[in-house]
Design a protein that fits this description.
The protein is built from five helices and 13 strands. The protein has helices at about 10-20, 40-60, 115-120, 120-125, 180-185; strands at about 25-30, 30-35, 65, 70-75, 80, 85-90, 100, 105-110, 135-140, 145-150, 160-165, 170, 175-180. The protein is about 20% helix and about 30% strand. By secondary structure, the protein is an alpha+beta fold. The strands form three sheets. It has a six-stranded mixed sheet with strand order 3-6-8-9-10-11. Strands 2-1-5-4-7 form a five-stranded mixed sheet. A two-stranded antiparallel sheet has the order 12-13. Strand 4 and strand 5 (about 80) form a beta hairpin. It has two domains: about 5-35, no CATH class; about 40-190, tt1808, chain A, CATH 3.90.1570.
Length: about 200
């Protein structure tokens, strides 16, 4: 009788060594590592559009917008992720020699069939415990749909809102930002989910 193979768990130190020695980005969750795969053109365009929409209003607030290659410390020595878009405002996070963000204000994940379960599941369970986080956006790349999770001020409770019309505008009052779905989905050729590879 064959026995099931147990995954090999890495220490945080071994994970750091692995990332430093590789050109591949890896996410880390409770000892397990996950190689980051490439995305579709729609995924890349959505990330760029969101970054472009966020950058001007956040610049005056001394906040910065980062994409995909910036690691976020979700739980110290336990969980590290590469969200599609990260907004950081804390001076420590904005130092030029920094390699990760510890106090994100906004995280964005562009959904695909291979990531949606984790983005809605284990990532969201971890993200919502980050004390500095006030907004989490899930952006669908197959249809015009954005789900916003907003932290109720000074609590650990969250409310969600869904935006599905091209004319909808997402208001993020605690960042003094408005995002139009029309701008977010500019140049996007919506494709049925089954076509995604």
């Amino acid at each position: 009788m064959e026995t099931a193979q147990q995954p090999i768990l890495l220490t945080y130190s071994a994970y750091k060594t692995l990332e430093e020695a590789s050109e591949t980005r890896f996410e880390f969750e409770a000892g397990q590592v996950y190689a980051m795969a490439g995305g579709t053109l729609n995924h890349n365009t959505l990330v760029g559009n969101i970054q472009a929409a966020l950058r001007p209003p956040l610049r005056s607030q001394s906040c910065r917008v980062f994409t995909e290659n910036v690691k976020v410390e979700v739980a110290k020595n336990q969980a590290y992720r590469y969200p599609d878009v990260v907004v950081a405002c804390h001076p420590f996070d904005l130092r030029g020699d920094n390699q990760l963000v510890r106090q994100p204000r906004l995280l964005v994940e562009v959904l695909s069939k291979s990531t949606e379960k984790a983005d809605r599941g284990v990532k969201w369970q971890r993200y919502r415990k980050i004390p500095s986080l006030i907004y989490y956006l899930l952006v669908d790349q197959y249809k015009v749909t954005v789900e916003l999770f907003s932290r109720i001020e000074e609590t650990d409770e969250w409310i969600s809102s869904i935006y599905e019309l091209p004319g909808d505008v997402i208001v993020l009052p605690r960042l003094n930002v408005e995002l139009s779905l029309r701008a977010m989905y500019e140049d996007i050729e919506l494709m049925p989910e089954e076509v995604d590879e």
